[in-house]
Amino acid sequence: MAAKPVAKQAKRLVVLVSGSGTNLQALLDEIAATGTEAYGAEVVAVGADREGIEGLARAERVGIPTFVCRVKDHGTREEWDTALAEAVSAHEPDLVVSAGFMKIVGKEFLARFGGRFVNTHPALLPSFPGAHGVRDALAYGARVTGCTVHFVDDGVDTGPIIAQGVVEVRDEDDESALHERIKEVERRLLVDVVGRLARNGYRIEGRKVVIQ
Ligand code: GAR
């Protein structure tokens, strides 16, 4: 599929999803409301590791190209990783955003997109990394948790932190209620961070991210 042309100044975003895609929707809504040039970026493609999810449907409804790269369609995890990297590369992104993408990428993907691959995680890293950040914070008895937007490195949720948002845990919370409140904060944070990275540029100094 041909790469979609965008306005000259805007950075090209490829967003990866695995589920409902409300963080993706927040990006799409903000870009639609603000305008591509003022926001500084446009979503040029949305990729997923599975079919039939609302995250892909959200992109399809507004005519954004989508692709699916499933682990089970590849002989090895490394082959999947290379195929994912190829699929993303085809859209020539400046930034890749993992917005609820529930897969750990490998060496080839990081070789191509390291330093420009952003993830959002539903906990205050380095606490509660992994696939169950909300459940783990609740089970631990944390009184505050939140979300972290960070660059991806070769660990699990260990890369340099860009921004965090704090959410109080309530006595009556279950995983779903707490996750919903985290996601309200997370969507605003992700929209703000991606826009600032795209508009201002940034550098990564060790563990520190400096947005210019
Ligand atoms: C978000 O809360 C995101 O932080 C989380 O999945 C949710 C996706 O929501 N990601 C992880 O847990 C990754 N470890 P969405 O599909 O509605 O944007």
TrEMBL record:
Keyword terms: Purine biosynthesis, Transferase
Catalysed reactions, semicolon-separated: N(1)-(5-phospho-beta-D-ribosyl)glycinamide + (6R)-10-formyltetrahydrofolate = N(2)-formyl-N(1)-(5-phospho-beta-D-ribosyl)glycinamide + (6S)-5,6,7,8-tetrahydrofolate + H(+)
Residues annotated as catalytic: 121
GO MF, one example: phosphoribosylglycinamide formyltransferase activity
Family that this chain belongs to: Belongs to the GART family.
Coiled-coil portions: none
Function field: Catalyzes the transfer of a formyl group from 10-formyltetrahydrofolate to 5-phospho-ribosyl-glycinamide (GAR), producing 5-phospho-ribosyl-N-formylglycinamide (FGAR) and tetrahydrofolate.
Keyword Transferase (UniProt): yes
Source taxon at top rank: Bacteria
Site (Raises pKa of active site His) residue list: 157
Pathway: Purine metabolism; IMP biosynthesis via de novo pathway; N(2)-formyl-N(1)-(5-phospho-D-ribosyl)glycinamide from N(1)-(5-phospho-D-ribosyl)glycinamide (10-formyl THF route): step 1/1
Keyword flag Transferase: yes
Protein name in UniProt: Phosphoribosylglycinamide formyltransferase
Enzyme class: transferase
EC number: 2.1.2.2
Residues annotated for (6R)-10-formyltetrahydrofolate binding in this entry: 77, 102-105, 119
